[in-house]
Amino acid sequence: MHIHILGICGTFMGSLAVLAKELGHRVTGSDANVYPPMSTQLQAQGIELMQGYDPAHLEPAPDLVVVGNALSRGNPAVEYVLNKGLPYVSGPQWLADHVLQGRWVLAAAGTHGKTTTSSMLAWVLEHAGMSPGFLIGGVPQNFGVSARLGGTPFFVVEADEYDSAFFDKRSKFVHYHPRTAILNNLEFDHADIFPDLAAIERQFHHLVRTIPGEGLVIHPTSETALKRVIDMGCWTPVQTTGEGGQWQARLLSEDGSHFEVLFDGKPQGTVDWELTGQHNVANALACLAAARHVGLVPELGCAALSAFKSVKRRMEKVAEVKGITIYDDFAHHPTAIATTLDGLRKRVGDAKVIAVVEPRSNSMKLGAHRDGLPESVVQADNVFWYAPPNLGWDLAATVASSTVPTQVCDSLEAIIEGVKAIATPGTQVVVMSNGGFGGLHGKLAQALEG
C-alpha cells in the first residue's frame, strides 16, 4: 500500500515512516522543512521526501495519508485531502492500529527526558537479548535509527502529551494503551495547545485510565503534579523512584556518571556511564523499574546502562576544535536547560562553559517560560541568546536580570563572533535548540578552526 506522510520530518512522523517501510509499504512524505537528523535517516531508508505541501505531491492519490499534528486547516495539502475525500488518519492512531496491537507496550511520558528514557529502556531490553521494537523521538546512538518493529512482543514508545492531529486533540499517548508506563515528571509546557498545567494533568490521567490492572505505573516521589494525576484515580500498581521511593540511587560521583542502584533498600548493581546530571540518574531508575516489570533483573539493566551511548542531540559532542568542545543539546525549557548545564558543570569543574540558547519551541515563542530563563543558565559562565526578528516578545528585557554575562544576538554571525572572541582551549560550548538552528554547530566549528 502507498502511504504518504504529511509532516514527515518531525521526529515522531519520521519514526512512523521507518516502521511503515519495514512493514512493506511504499512510503513517501512531505514537510515544510527537511533537515537532519530525520531527513538523512529517511533518505538512507529509501523514503522519498518532498519539500513543502504542494497538493501535486498527492497525485496519483496514495492509499492512505497520515497527517502530522503540525498541520492545520488551511494547509494546501490538508485541504486537498479533505476535498478529494482521501482516506486519512493521525500518526498515533496509525501506530496503535498497525504496530502496537497485541504487543506489550512500555511507554515513557513526561515533560522532560522522554526521548532519553525510552532510548535507555530500548537499549536495556536489547542488551538482554529481548529484541524490542521501538519508536523514539530522536536517534539513540546505540541503534542509529529512531524506530524498528523488533522481533518480540515488547515495544518501547516515547509517549508524548502533544495533540494527535488537527482533527484529534487528545494527547498522542492516549492511543498507545501501555502495560508499563513511566511518568517522568510534569510541568507546564506546550502553551500553544494547553491553557494551564491542570489541562495537561487531565490528559495524563486519561493515559493512567488506559493502563491495565496487571500493568505498572512508575513515577518519582518528588513530582507534585504527578501525585495529583495519580490521586484522580489509579487502578494499577505503582512503583516510585527518587528520594523516599522504592528505587533510589546512591551517587558515587557528584556529576551522576557513577552511581549505585537500590530497590527496596537493597543494592541491585552500579551504573558507570558517559552521561551526567541528576535528571539522567532519575531517568535510569525509571528505566530499570520498567525493565524489571518485563522480567529483567536490575543487575543486568545496570550493566546495559553502563554501555548506553545517549541520543543524538542530547548533549551530543559534535566537534572539538583547538581544545574547544561543542555540544548539540535539545533543551528548550528552563528546567531542561538548568539540569543539562548543572550536569556539565559538575563534570568539567571550573572549565569555562558557554551556553548558546535559541528559544524556539511553541511555548517559548509564546513567552510561556520566559520568567524561568535568567535563572536557568546560572551554571554557565557566558550566555548567548538568539532573538530572531519574529520572536514576539522582548528577550533582551527578560534576560537583563541574569547574573551571568549575557549577549542577545539577532543573527548567527553575531553569536559566532561573540563565542569566538571569548572561547579558549578547555571551553565547553553548549548549543541549545529544538530545531536545526541554521546549522550553527558546523558554522561555529569552522569559524573556530579558522
From TrEMBL:
Which cofactors, by name? Mg(2+)
Q: Where is the Mur ligase C-terminal domain?
A: 313-435
Q: Does the keyword Hydrolase apply?
A: no
Q: Which residues form a coiled coil?
A: none
Q: Which GO terms describe its biological process?
A: cell division; cell wall organization; peptidoglycan biosynthetic process; peptidoglycan turnover; regulation of cell shape
**Residues that coordinate or bind ATP:** 110-116
Q: What is its EC number?
A: 6.3.2.45
Which molecular-function annotation in GO is an example for this chain?
UDP-N-acetylmuramate-L-alanyl-gamma-D-glutamyl-meso-2,6-diaminoheptanedioate ligase activity
The pathway to which it is assigned is: Cell wall biogenesis; peptidoglycan recycling
SUPFAM superfamilies linked: MurCD N-terminal domain (SSF51984), MurD-like peptide ligases, catalytic domain (SSF53623), MurD-like peptide ligases, peptide-binding domain (SSF53244)
* Pfam families per record: Mur_ligase, Mur_ligase_C, Mur_ligase_M
**Which protein family is it in?**
Belongs to the MurCDEF family. Mpl subfamily.
The record's listing under NCBIfam families reads:
mpl
This molecule's function is given as:
Reutilizes the intact tripeptide L-alanyl-gamma-D-glutamyl-meso-diaminopimelate by linking it to UDP-N-acetylmuramate.
What is the official name of this protein in its record? UDP-N-acetylmuramate--L-alanyl-gamma-D-glutamyl-meso-2,6-diaminoheptandioate ligase
Organism, as annotated: Pseudomonas nicosulfuronedens
